[in-house]
């Protein structure tokens, strides 16, 4: 899916930078979206050059692309990822001591993405400069069981959010995730305490997973005009 963001060149640089930190013999989580796709293509080129790696895809999209570029696949049943590489819709908190906070799920893949990122020893985020923010303020994608949508929307409103069921673009009705559920995008304005909101939303009955990624990112590789900025910066 084409979403607003940086240039293909910025995404390629970020993706190549992240693919370079994959080591021979690694199991690598393969994220979803256009920036993660750049990393998967770069990893495929390393496989062509002899790298031994197995990928764990986070979506139909990443599985198809990994197969296309020749990355052997495995599953969480058989292996845990040494590393996971994935994009983000918004990144806040770069440069501070603890982990950057993310909003993910613009492609409705955040449930499997969080599962794989949390299972990985090292979670590397790939982004372009349009994703960087001082504070998270984008709507938070929330995957919800279809029967639970009215109750979850009411609970999100009580938390101060403005929920909207995500509509499909080339299908009548809502977006249906790879897991067969629906997505509610909930605007909260600027999120002062992402960890507290993550806990509040995550405990609502009927919520499968939400797109706040707090305390998970180990590194962020940002493709810029003339290279890549890697956070945390080496001192
Ligand atoms: O559900 C999709 C994912 O969380 C993506 O990683 C996220 O939306 C960023 O995608 P893109 O790199 O295409 O902006």
State the assembly state of the protein chains: single chain
Please tell me the total number of domains: 2
Cα distance, first to last residue?
A: 37 Å
Query: CATH class of the largest domain, anyone?
Result: Alpha Beta
Low-pLDDT sequence parts: none
Q: What's the average pLDDT?
A: 96
H/E topology pattern: HEHEHEEEHEEEHEEHEEEE
CATH architecture of the largest domain: 3-Layer(aba) Sandwich
Q: Beta-strand level of the residues, as a percent range?
A: 15-25%
The radius of gyration computed from the alpha-carbon positions, rounded to a whole number of angstroms, is 17 Å
CATH fold type of the largest domain: Rossmann fold
Bound molecules: ribose-5-phosphate
Subunit structure: Homodimer.
Pfam families: Rib_5-P_isom_A (PF06026)
Keywords: Isomerase
Catalytic activity: aldehydo-D-ribose 5-phosphate = D-ribulose 5-phosphate
Helices and strands, with pairings:
Layout: H1 8-20, E1 27-30, H2 34-48, E2 54-57, H3 60-68, E3 83-86, E4 90-92, E5 101-103, H4 110-119, E6 122-127, E7 132-133, E8 140-144, H5 149-158, E9 162-165, E10 182-187, H6 194-202, E11 207-210, E12 212-213, E13 219-224, E14 227-231
Parallel strand pairs: 1-2, 1-3, 3-6, 4-7, 6-13
Antiparallel strand pairs: 4-5, 5-12, 8-10, 8-11, 9-10, 13-14
